[in-house]
């Protein structure tokens, strides 16, 4: 009788551990890379981290599907979402040697325009960033860069 109880206990233990392992689903890379974009301020902070300190987690999430970046220089350039993401992924972990400041220019319930200023030793880069609410999160929809 005692061995019968031990057998049933072992079988129950095996069944419970099997169910527990089956319930523990592997987490996809995109779920691991989720970032908090629930407010415009969080989205802006993450954008600054991505562009200035080489943060690569969630880089695909932060940009709207119709994102574009315009660079005002002697020869104006326009970059697509995919081109910028590819470039930022290459800069993973690279911290820019600059002082960063942000200023909110305009804000409403569905959009925000912010000015991100990066002061380097010999020049200053100004990035006007437009953020828009998409569903329950915020995305960067446009970026205009100028240099002084």
Gyration radius, rounded: 24 Å
Strand order of the largest sheet: 2-1-6-5-4-3
Oligomer state of the chains in this structure: single chain
Q: H/E order of the elements? A: HHHEEHEEEE
Structural notes for this entry:
This protein has four helices and six strands; from the N terminus they run H-H-H-E-E-H-E-E-E-E. The chain has helices spanning 2-23, 29-32, 40-52, 81-90; strands at 63-72, 77-80, 99-107, 111-119, 124-134, 137-147. It has a six-stranded mixed beta sheet. The longest helix is centred in the N-terminal third of the chain and has 22 residues, at 2-23. It is globular. Residues 4-13 and 15-32 have low confidence and may be disordered.
Summary, kept brief:
The protein has 148 residues and is α+β, with helices and mostly antiparallel strands.
Write the layout of secondary structure elements.
Layout: H1 2-23, H2 29-32, H3 40-52, E1 63-72, E2 77-80, H4 81-90, E3 99-107, E4 111-119, E5 124-134, E6 137-147
Parallel strand pairs: 1-6
Antiparallel strand pairs: 1-2, 3-4, 4-5, 5-6
Keywords:
6 strands, 148 residues, alpha+beta
């Amino acid at each position: 009788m005692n061995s019968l109880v031990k057998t049933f206990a072992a079988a129950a233990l095996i069944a419970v551990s099997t169910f527990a392992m089956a319930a523990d689903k592997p987490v996809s890379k995109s779920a691991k890379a989720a970032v908090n974009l629930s407010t415009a301020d969080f989205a802006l902070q993450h954008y600054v981290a991505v562009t200035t300190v080489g943060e690569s987690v969630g880089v695909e999430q932060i940009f709207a599907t119709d994102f574009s970046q315009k660079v005002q220089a002697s020869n104006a350039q326009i970059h697509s979402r995919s081109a910028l993401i590819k470039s930022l992924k290459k800069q993973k972990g690279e911290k820019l040697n600059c002082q960063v400041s942000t200023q909110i220019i305009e804000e409403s319930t569905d959009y925000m325009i912010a000015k991100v200023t990066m002061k380097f030793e010999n020049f200053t880069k100004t990035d006007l960033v437009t953020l828009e609410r998409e569903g329950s999160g915020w995305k960067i929809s446009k970026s205009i860069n100028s240099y002084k």
